[in-house]
Amino acid sequence: MSVIHRLPDLLVNQIAAGEVVERPASVLKEVLENAVDAGARAIEVQLEQGGVRRIRVADDGCGIARDDLELALERHATSKIASLDDLERVGTMGFRGEALAAIAAVARTTITSRAAGSPHAWRIAGDDRGTAPAALNHGTVVEVADLYYNTPARRKFLKSEGTEFAHCDEMFRRVALARPDIALQLAHNGRISHRLAVAAPLARVAALMGDDFVAHAREVEAESGALRLTGLASLPAYSRASRDAQYFFVNGRFVRDKLLTHAVRQAYADILHGARHPAYVLFLTLDPAGVDVNVHPAKIEVRFRDARAVHQFVFHALTRALAESGAAQAGMAAE
Ligand code: ADP
Ligand code: MG
């Protein structure tokens, strides 16, 4: 007698959601990244009750054709890669084709979208599949309501509205820092908390990190072969008691990476007291083939092909930028 059976799709997606949809902020991350991948020039986010009650993201990107709407909600369905070759040099934020399926399995999800050339928009709801005509000028609106309504065990792990909103806000900031070329707006319970026009990279950093940070930071700009590091790193005078202002992006993707963190810490070793932490917004770009982003579903970890070279490059680039300013002396004097 056989005891093995295939799990129903919904359950498969709910299991996958455990990895992808940790909290409202993870929904926001996926939906924002989809808007970015769609080539949006402007993105508007509305949250209710920390994102638990509702997350609505409207973009002016390429839209989704009617025939693709059902597939968009299906697991392992994506427009972003088609082969292993594509995967190895992927330039989009997404590529696994599982986020919307996972989200739709644990929240009431609807997508309204109008692809270029379509006479009107179409709308699909995650639970009944099937499309209906809708009104929308351009782009895509994704609405995710009542997160974990059907998975009460997960719902219990949600924190207070304030905490969940703080995580959403942080996620929004990461995308906003990485993409100054996109206008972005965030509102919570009807109140606008960020309204960001398209800006030069440093102006966007100033808008999100504050003028004080910018005034006490050195510009980093270094290049070696295909490696490039740009951004701002704080002088010792702006050091912080926690790591709350540290942003490292690899090819536009926010990452937390031991190797990079270590390179940064080493660059500050002689100028910053051990209990203090620098603030920084750093952008590393390299050939996509030199970094594997397919390490974890949330893609917050990466693996470098030539880890040693990356470490050395970041360490030296940062050390040089900090030294040029005379930061070393200033920091020592402040000890
Ligand atoms: P992935 O981003 O990994 O491809 P998703 O489940 O997040 O997987 O999305 C599935 C597909 O739906 C995408 O590949 C894309 O074609 C389409 N899509 C999702 N969101 C948008 C959007 N805002 N604009 C245009 N297309 C979208
Ligand atoms: Mg995606």
From TrEMBL:
One of its GO terms (molecular function) is ATP binding. Residues 205-323 form the DNA mismatch repair protein S5 domain. GO terms for biological process: mismatch repair. Keywords: DNA damage, DNA repair, Endonuclease, Hydrolase, Nuclease. The keyword Nuclease applies. GO terms for cellular component: mismatch repair complex. This protein is involved in the repair of mismatches in DNA. It is required for dam-dependent methyl-directed DNA mismatch repair. May act as a 'molecular matchmaker', a protein that promotes the formation of a stable complex between two or more DNA-binding proteins in an ATP-dependent manner without itself being part of a final effector complex. Belongs to the DNA mismatch repair MutL/HexB family. This is DNA mismatch repair protein MutL. It comes from Pseudothauera rhizosphaerae.
